[in-house]
Amino acid sequence: MNKKSIVIYTFTLSFIVLIILIKIDLTTSFDSSIYNLVTMNMNDNLTNIYKSITFLGSGVFITISCLLSLVLSFILKKRNIGLIITSCVTINSLFSEFLKIIIARPRPEILQITVENSYSFPSSHTVASVSLCGILLYLVLKREINKKIKLFLSIILVLLPILIGISRIYLGVHNLSDVLGGGILAITLLLIEIKIIEKKIYNNLLIK
Known about the structure:
Elements: H1 3-23, H2 28-38, H3 44-55, H4 59-75, H5 79-103, H6 124-142, H7 147-170, H8 176-206
Helix pairs in contact: 1-8, 3-7, 4-5, 5-6, 5-8, 6-7, 6-8, 7-8
């Protein structure tokens, strides 16, 4: 078994363990503590900032981003890049919604600044943002570009999903465990997808 397979199995096991912990109600105290920490300095300005950040993980923004990737990749004659980005985000998001229905975890019973009617686990915003930023990060790291630009883009692509996850906790629509679950799920699926990409597509079609 190679290192990539071990990492995939580790993330998969972590996700399963997290579901079990949620089902036997062992995350409640920790979730509450993190919510209190995140909302400790709640005010109108901070709320507006987090509302703007959370929009970056919304279905509308993610869909627009995927469509732009398709258009740009078509213009730049790198059509496979846009297809890969869109496919990864779409597959991961749909699988996340399927799991939400199966696990059926209610939303947190706290102040919800933004009202959500669907189930809570895993966080769809987190899955979508980690999937989009994750596959973009992979493509950036594969490209031969200026090291400073690569570092800057990498930092942005890592920080953005983290901030979106924090915004979901601040707005009261997710627990930390929901956000962690979304992140772990998205990373697991991305690792599988990247393994397929490198085996089937990358050497012949992706960036050449």
